[in-house]
Write a structure and sequence with these properties.
Low-confidence stretches: none
Helix content: 40-55%
Largest sheet: 3 strands, mixed
Strand order of the largest sheet: 1-2-3
Oligomer: single chain
Radius of gyration: 18 Å
Number of strands: 3
């Protein structure tokens, strides 16, 4: 009797990457100094608390934005500043689960269907939903996580391993 092999869905690699990368993101969020949440590296930059909360929320925002076939560019509210590390970590866990639920409920036809962002009816961008999620749900998160690691370095917080040893974790340095 032949064992049945499960066909991988197009969203499955996205879900696996979300799980894998969430561990690294969580490591950084766990070391945010609570007494520095209002610190900013530059007057035009987000505060540490704003950036951390954005990272905690970006995946669910991107997943939700990718649900309709066409999305009118929303007016994004001003960034909220986190008041505690616990708030950031709870938000991250809750929003990661919601984002994964949205992505997991997407079949292959929906994943490949064209997704459009419009403003006043004019198309600003169009791509397969899967491409939008790769760009905003994953890559955008990594971009901000890189910013967070630079913020933490400026605050002299030891940086954990991200994709290999950091200057603080390298046993050979």
């Amino acid at each position: 009797m032949k064992a049945e092999t499960k066909q991988m869905r197009l969203v499955d690699p996205i879900l696996m990457e979300m799980d894998q990368e969430a561990e690294t993101t969580k490591k950084l969020l766990e070391i945010i100094p609570e007494d520095k949440l209002s610190w900013r590296p530059h007057q035009k930059a987000r505060s540490l608390g704003e950036l951390a909360l954005h990272i905690a929320q970006v995946q669910v925002l991107a997943a939700e934005m990718g649900q309709p076939d066409t999305l009118e560019l929303p007016n994004f509210p001003p960034d909220e500043e986190a008041t505690s590390r616990e708030q950031i970590l709870e938000s991250f866990a809750e929003n990661l689960k919601k984002a994964k639920d949205i992505v997991a409920s997407t079949d292959d036809a929906q994943a490949l269907a064209e997704w459009k962002l419009t403003k006043e009816g004019k198309t600003l961008m169009a791509m397969p939903r899967l491409g939008f999620w790769r760009g905003l749900l994953l890559n955008h998160t990594y971009h901000h996580r890189g910013q967070l690691s630079a913020y933490l370095r400026e605050l002299d917080v030891p940086i954990p391993s991200i994709y290999g040893p950091s200057a603080d974790t390298n046993p050979f340095a």
